[in-house]
Amino acid sequence: MEYTIFNVTLPLIGLYILTYTLYRNGRIRRSFHVNLWNLIILIAFLISGIGGFVLLFLLENGIRFSLNSQLLYWHVEAGLALVVVTVFHFHCYTGSLNRILGVGR
């Protein structure tokens, strides 16, 4: 099975640049921009997390059927999206992250 890294990451990067540009130009509010990416990170987490637990359950119980490989594929693809969106999440919360880490004191 071949994973498509760029098919997942490039549209997300493009969408983030678009929404960030719209926010910086005053077309959308910051809260909309942040909430949109919080929703996307939640969806990616749920797909990857639930898929991982289902795969673990199937593996532990020795259950094999044709859906396993497709579930693994989407688990990995959602995990890739989760990594990229987590970077965006850190960008949205740079101020909070700096305060937590003690940067700039």
UniProtKB/TrEMBL annotation:
Domain of life the protein comes from? Archaea
What's in the keyword line of the UniProt record?
Membrane, Transmembrane, Transmembrane helix
- Where are its TM segments located? 6-23, 35-59, 71-90
Protein name as it appears in the record: DUF4405 domain-containing protein
